[in-house]
Specification:
By secondary structure, the chain is mostly beta strands. The chain has a single domain, classed as Neuraminidase. 4% of the residues lie in helices and 46% in strands. The chain has 1 helix and 26 strands. The longest helix has 14 residues.
């Protein structure tokens, strides 16, 4: 049950909420990521802005949903150390010591760079991380844009950030690894960063709300290898699921897929927004098909990157229940998969949840034939 609740919370926060309050002023805000502390408190991160300026924003709630007044200012933190882009999709990670890392992009001069900020358990910036709690990282030859979309923590305290960077009109997977003090780890890739162009092709059409090629999800294997999932060009005008697996030193794992990368075509444009590792080493990616008829899309891979033909149809599953696509994924202990996103009811979007059996079929014991939609149009804001 906790797994399902976590997925529901993730989907709720991703859809955002306008009119959040930070400090004494009313600021347009949107929550996009969350983490649950061991004590049950919930930390949500997103963006907030006034006019054309946006910044990282954090909120911490008590287990009963009240704002935690011991965090920041009455439970909220608005980080103004750098400006973020208005469409940034920040992510967060909770360290074992209670510190919180938030990452996205930050404007430095005319360029948006990888941007990370680390906060103490009371909401103050951690002065032992980077410069006053903040780190920005450019990518060589980037086209004035790089952005973090996913974070992973290593047991040794190092932090892996994954996202995208632009080069000559071709966006690519971008990864960086940081030491616990925020400095780049020179033992990873080239001086701490890695950039991977999975496939070349004509620039794809824009997917609303996202730069549409790059890494959007991370999963770390027990052996230290890292899987990044997202999207890349495959056909003119479309993007498709893409995965890359890296060794612990940042080199592509040549035993995975085609020289370390995999691209999966669903017969339509598709993007992977979540990646999870099964206990048996198989990899599940979930996301959406693009275009006017967006649907839930899932793929499962064997440990070597080959599609698992025992899952769905030749390793793929597409589910259409008015859905707009999947944004979150969690594995239950019994092997079932819970996927969350949104669906359209004609004049409004609603929560959409689907649960799948281990072989990719919808679970008939869940909701109506394996799917659930929840409409908040009659709910009262509190």
């Amino acid at each position: 049950m906790r797994t399902i609740v976590s997925v529901l919370l993730a989907a709720a926060l991703f859809t955002g909420c306008a009119g959040a309050f930070f400090g004494s002023g009313r600021i347009a805000a949107s929550a996009r990521a969350l983490a649950i502390q061991p004590d049950g408190k919930i930390v949500a991160a997103g963006t907030a802005g006034v006019g054309n300026r946006f910044a990282f924003a954090l909120v911490r709630y008590l287990p009963d949903g009240r704002l935690d007044t011991g965090f920041g200012v009455d439970g909220t933190v608005l980080a103004t150390e750098f400006r973020v882009s208005d469409y940034v999709v920040p992510t967060l990670a909770l360290q074992p010591d209670g510190k919180v890392i938030v990452a996205g992009d930050g404007l430095v001069g005319q360029d948006f760079l990888f941007a990370l900020a680390r906060y103490l358990p009371d909401g103050g910036l951690d002065p032992t991380f980077g410069t006053g709690g903040v780190v920005t990282t450019p990518f060589t030859d980037s086209r004035h844009f790089a952005s973090v979309r996913a974070l992973a923590l290593q047991p040794d305290g190092k932090v892996i950030a994954a996202g995208l960077s632009g080069l000559d009109r071709r966006d690519a997977f971008a990864l960086a690894r940081y030491r616990p003090d925020g400095t780049l780890d020179a033992t990873f890739g080239g001086g701490g960063t890695v950039r991977t162009v999975i496939t070349f092709g004509p620039k794809a059409s824009t997917f609303p709300g996202f730069v549409n090629r790059g890494a959007f999800a991370l999963a770390r294997q027990p052996d230290g290898r890292v899987i990044a999932g997202g999207a890349t060009d495959r056909l003119a005008g479309t993007v498709v699921f893409a995965l890359a697996r890296y060794l612990s030193d940042g080199r592509l794992d040549r035993t995975f897929g085609d020289g370390g990368t995999v691209a999966t075509d669903f017969g339509a444009g598709s993007l992977a927004f979540a990646v999870a590792l099964q206990p048996d080493g198989k990899i599940v990616a979930a996301g959406t098909t693009s275009g006017p008829n967006a649907r839930f899309a899932l793929a499962r891979y064997l440990a070597d990157g080959a599609l698992d033909r025992a899952f769905g149809t030749d390793g793929r599953v597409i589910t259409d229940f008015g859905s707009r696509g999947a944004l979150a994924l969690a594995l239950q202990p019994d092997g079932k998969l819970v996927v969350a996103g949104s669906a359209n009811l004609g004049d409004r979007d609603v929560f959409a949840i689907a649960r799948y059996l281990p072989d990719g079929r919808l679970d008939p014991a869940f909701g109506t034939g394996g799917t659930v939609t929840t409409d908040f149009s009659g709910a009262v804001a509190r």
